[in-house]
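Note to self: user wants both folds in one dump. Writing first protein now.
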Amino acid sequence: MSDLEKVKELRKSTGAGFKDCNIALKESNGNLEKAAEILRVKGVAKASKKMSRDAKEGVVVISGNSEKTSLIEINCETDFVAKNDDFINFVKEISEINNECSSDLDKLNKSLMVNKKTVEENLVALIAKIGEKITIGKTKTIKNINSQNYIYQHSVVKDNVSKLGVVVSLETNELNEEINLFGKHLSMHIAASNPLALISDDIDQNIIEKEQQLITEELKTSGKPAEISEKISIGKINKFKEENSLMSQDWVMDPKKKVKDIMSELNIEGLKIKEFTRIKIGE
């Protein structure tokens, strides 16, 4: 095998650039296995140096079916890389694996990809090849008994790859066009309104406490009597809970009604919102 053929073979097996492959072959005296190991070690070193950078761009990928659906966020440094073919192919493949692993990150990282290398190894190689920090961000898998999942993607990059992804699970005793339309519209509503929880009691208490602190600080400078400030504070925190709870939010397609009103009007026995998730790049 000629030197050029060895370089081509090494590029094909490792995904490294021509120059790096050529150097590695010289260091290994033409031994392909040793050259691949040299590239792997260098790739890890390169990846480690890049991990201190910020990775605020990226994509959200949705995989699965209406019974079991998974979202995974993959972050990178620039929007240019988020549209790179190597990056897109990588995120689409690990999204499928993530669905199989039910968003178990330990299992995901150790899972083998098509090239017989683990997700972890391929991630390091991709960082070295592209030259940017790439990380796996938020993940979520939704699967409920007697439920149907509905998805919505906004700012689609390609196929099931986008900048924002939503999955909502509806428990239902029947399936018809009316339910399917509601599921589609509800996922769009969640994308636009970004609820924190299904009902106010489910909102994280830490979030409530932080909001209460902001309201208290705001009212300190109002000059109003303590008893009036207290009433205003209660009103503001109740409004915050209402605006951030899915069931009590204004329905995006008819703001005069709440989400719970729309469900009542549907009058479908056994229809419930089981859970939902929303992942957006940059949030």
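First done. Writing the second protein, which came from a different request thread.
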Amino acid sequence: MKKILFGLLFMALAFAGTACDSGSNDSAELNLSVSNIDFGDVRTGETETRSFTVTNEGNVAIRDLGVAVQGAAFSATPTTLELSVGASADIEVTFAPETDGDFSGTLTVASVEEAVASNVNLAGLAVDAIVGSWVSEGQNIAPGLAGAPFFNVRIDAVFNNDNTYNVVSEDANGSTITFNGTWQATAVNEEGIRGITLNQSEPAALVSSGIFRINGNSMEYEVIQEGLTGVEPPTQSGGFGSTTVGGNPTGPFWIQNYVRVD
């Protein structure tokens, strides 16, 4: 009888040991569908969103999964998740730069309770909002350029990320003039207006300055050559229409409107 009881006790202990070993093997394991997200070129003031998938490939549910982002201009949603065993969820990552330049960051998906964490490297290049190709024609041509002596009917402007520009103006006779040079812009003010200085190299060396404001794919633009007698270019503080001739504001006479075409 003692042998039988001892044998049953041994079997019970062995079973208990097996059960404990099985429980100790429970673990969480995260799988992210990407390890890097590169947003490429994004204009300041615009947003770009990418998504990836996180999957719980472990054998325990994760109830406290958090999503955190380090790095300016990047954000993610949602910021908290619960994943049952085998479940997946999509995470959206947004790049919304307000200034131009190279940006980098790290997104971390982690659970403190289950002691797991995985990272995604983030990168993006923010280019100035003015960078790109623009066209002005028809009613968008400034009255001062549509009338004598210019008689412009179309103006194509390209502002490059290396701060060079190319402008081609076409008059009513189909004749064109090409202007090349470099540009520099100031920070935006409360009205969304920025200052700009153009250092023209062709067809003649001169400097023009003024202001512009971008709203999506539209741009208001008022620029006047510097050094003209009695003429003062517009200013950020004065706003659009603040070009003066003989001390008098010219209103909309030199305000150009462009539409983005790239």
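Dump finished. Worth passing along: The chain has two helices and 20 strands.
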